């Protein structure tokens, strides 16, 4: 028999009754039923119930066993007593009577967190003792899911004829939207390598090298501020690139890969088969985000014309300024003052003075009395008898300020009726779009409009390449500087703020899952694109010399994308925090509490690298 086990803790069933077996694993819990000991033994594969009574030759040893000890037992498989079976687990029909035991690893002291049960622990505790946290069933399931997703992604890429190549981890610093992690060179004192933010330049160089289709499961390193959906140090992505392709070719290639993974691991949720293409500007207008959650059907609309010159002075004055507008967020079924006040309070928490609203309700007796010049009691009687139809009225401070005709025009434009509401934000769109987008999400959630049983995908396209700093007036890149401008060199001759790139993102349920572009492979167009943003040819050659030089030697048109594996798994696991699907993540301060990183270098290390640490105040 094997030194540690003949079966896993998920293998045994009634077919093994009477067999002598050997199991190894962790003590999940111990129960003492009047001198008869029951132990749930757990390994990576499952759970088996063990039984030990005073007749066992090792009963005194088994009595000492505690939770999370690692043990090996020999015993006999028995059928559980009738009525005591556990149909929830594969081994629920049997138990193993312990005849021998070996303690492989004890727990010294108290456990900092319990593996048994579903107790909540502070994240700092969970990350410091991650090896214990990872023993818990949910975490085991998440990590197995991650492994299975990566396996599926690889197979789907191979099936489409892609070759997997590995690009360097130590490379040159390259500005790609985030801070680099720098690595000092011992052989070249005073110089630094960088960990790659992405394999961007290398995968483009592979296309120049004549490889038609490339992919890899690539580690990426970025010194970023953490968010619930972003690691502050490193992450993994499905990175791919193709030669001789247009934007639609990339979409047609990656869509079945992503959709297939969500169908395979999505737990039966519906997966959109048709992926809408939405321009960046429309996404900002309709959803307040370039990664909209399309499970929520609400679309925002511009309603400026109804407030221009109106009695609502705040919006009327705003609209006199250049570049301002008023947008409405429809809220079907949200037509109560209580809900409207709650959303107004949300806007105030977000730093706005408030959020205007109108809601529509059945006409009240007060309104009928006022219209007809009768008492409220008489109006109530007329409404009750049907002599007067109740109809609909608009309520809320905005309705009173702008009057009935604009209010009715707004209602008709938004397609709303009795029991519905609309919320309004005004100013320069960039100043309020993000808040409007969050408000839209909350409205969809609270009113039950968001379809939770669906994975809703959309390509966000036509990203502007440039943006202008409001204070300095400087033109700089808004998005990927390596994207090919739509229209090529001709597009760069006019207003930079109107130049769109062949750049695209894939949004799913409010998260950005994929980002990519058709690359700018023409050196003359690249130099011009960077010149507009204030970077001369010499600087471009210095920063991107390897790629620029390669493009002098017959670069093919090429494009690709990268899909965030951590976010994909987070969505499939129905987790809200990306750290729940990463084996050993950093905390929110980019610290590894388990391995004590970052740590202070020794004096010898600093001397060898020719470095000196200057203390920060």
Description:
- By secondary structure, the chain is of the alpha+beta class.
- The protein is built from 19 helices and 24 strands.
- The chain starts with 19 loop residues before the first strand and ends in an 8-residue tail after the last helix.
- The mean pLDDT is 93.
Note the topology.
Blueprint: E1 20-33, E2 36-42, E3 47-52, H1 59-62, E4 70-79, E5 94-105, H2 123-128, H3 130-133, H4 137-159, E6 163-164, E7 181-184, E8 192-195, H5 200-208, E9 213-221, E10 234-243, H6 247-265, E11 270-271, E12 276-279, H7 280-287, E13 301-302, H8 313-318, E14 325-331, H9 337-349, E15 356-362, H10 365-372, H11 376-385, E16 392-395, H12 397-402, H13 404-414, E17 421-427, H14 429-446, E18 454-455, E19 457-461, E20 466-468, E21 475-477, H15 488-491, E22 503-508, E23 511-518, H16 523-532, H17 537-550, E24 558-564, H18 565-572, H19 603-609
Parallel strand pairs: 3-5, 6-9, 11-18, 12-19
Antiparallel strand pairs: 1-2, 1-4, 2-3, 4-5, 7-8, 9-10, 10-24, 13-14, 14-17, 15-16, 15-17, 19-22, 20-21, 22-23, 23-24
């Amino acid at each position: 028999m094997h030194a540690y086990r003949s079966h896993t803790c998920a293998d045994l069933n009634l077919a093994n009754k009477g067999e002598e077996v050997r199991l190894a694993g962790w003590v999940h819990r111990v129960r003492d039923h009047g001198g008869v000991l029951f132990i749930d033994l757990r390994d990576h594969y499952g759970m088996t119930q063990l039984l030990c009574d005073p007749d066992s030759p090792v009963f005194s040893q088994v009595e000492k066993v505690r939770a999370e000890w690692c043990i090996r037992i020999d015993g006999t498989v028995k059928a559980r007593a009738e009525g005591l079976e556990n149909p929830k687990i594969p081994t629920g029909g049997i138990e193993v009577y312990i005849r021998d035991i070996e303690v492989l690893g004890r727990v010294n002291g108290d456990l900092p967190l319990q593996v048994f049960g579903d107790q909540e622990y502070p994240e700092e505790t969970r990350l410091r003792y991650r090896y214990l946290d990872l023993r818990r069933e949910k975490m085991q399931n998440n990590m197995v899911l991650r492994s299975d997703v990566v396996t599926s992604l690889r197979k789907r890429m191979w099936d489409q004829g892609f070759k997997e190549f590995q690009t360097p981890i130590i490379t040159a610093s390259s500005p790609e939207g985030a801070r680099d992690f720098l690595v000092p060179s011992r052989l070249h004192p005073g110089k630094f390598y960088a960990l790659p933010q992405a394999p961007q330049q290398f995968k483009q160089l592979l296309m120049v090298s004549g490889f038609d289709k490339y992919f890899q499961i690539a580690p990426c390193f970025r010194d970023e501020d953490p968010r619930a959906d972003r690691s502050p140090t490193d992450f993994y992505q499905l990175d791919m690139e193709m030669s001789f392709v247009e934007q639609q070719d990339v979409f047609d290639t990656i869509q079945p890969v992503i959709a297939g993974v969500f169908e395979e691991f999505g737990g039966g949720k519906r997966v959109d088969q048709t992926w809408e293409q939405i321009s960046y500007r429309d996404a900002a207008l309709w959803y307040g985000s370039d990664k909209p959650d399309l499970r929520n059907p609400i679309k925002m609309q511009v309603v400026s014309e109804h407030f221009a010159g109106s009695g609502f002075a705040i919006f009327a004055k705003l609209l006199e300024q250049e570049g301002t507008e008023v947008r409405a967020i429809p809220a079907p079924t949200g037509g109560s003052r209580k809900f409207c006040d709650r959303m107004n309070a949300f806007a105030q928490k977000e730093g706005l003075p408030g959020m205007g609203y109108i809601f529509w309700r059945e006409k009240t007796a007060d309104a009928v009395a006022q219209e007809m010049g009768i008492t409220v009691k008489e109006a109530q009687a007329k409404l009750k008898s049907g002599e007067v139809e109740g109809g609909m009225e608009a309520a809320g401070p905005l309705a009173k300020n702008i009057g009935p005709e604009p209010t009715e025009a707004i209602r008709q434009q938004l397609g709303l009726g009795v029991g519905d509401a609309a919320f309004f934000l005004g100013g320069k769109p960039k100043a309020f779009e993000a808040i409007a987008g969050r408000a839209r999400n909350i409205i969809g959630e609270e009113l039950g409009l968001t379809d939770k049983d669906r994975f809703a995908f959309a390509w966000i396209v036509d990203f502007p390449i440039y943006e202008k700093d409001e204070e300095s007036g400087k033109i700089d890149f808004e998005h990927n500087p390596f994207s090919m401008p739509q229209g090529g060199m001709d597009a760069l001759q006019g207003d930079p703020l109107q130049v769109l790139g062949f750049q695209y993102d894939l949004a799913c349920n409010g998260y950005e899952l994929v980002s990519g572009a058709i690359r700018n492979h023409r050196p003359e167009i690249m130099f011009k694109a960077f010149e507009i943003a204030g970077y001369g040819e010499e600087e471009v050659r210095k920063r991107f010399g390897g790629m620029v030089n390669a493009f002098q030697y017959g670069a093919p048109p090429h494009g690709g994308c990268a899909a965030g594996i951590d976010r994909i798994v987070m969505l499939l696991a129905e987790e809200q925090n990306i750290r729940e699907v990463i084996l050993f993540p950093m905390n929110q301060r980019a610290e590894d509490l388990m391995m004590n990183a970052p740590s202070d270098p020794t004096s010898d290390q600093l001397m060898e690298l020719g470095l000196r640490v200057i203390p920060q105040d």
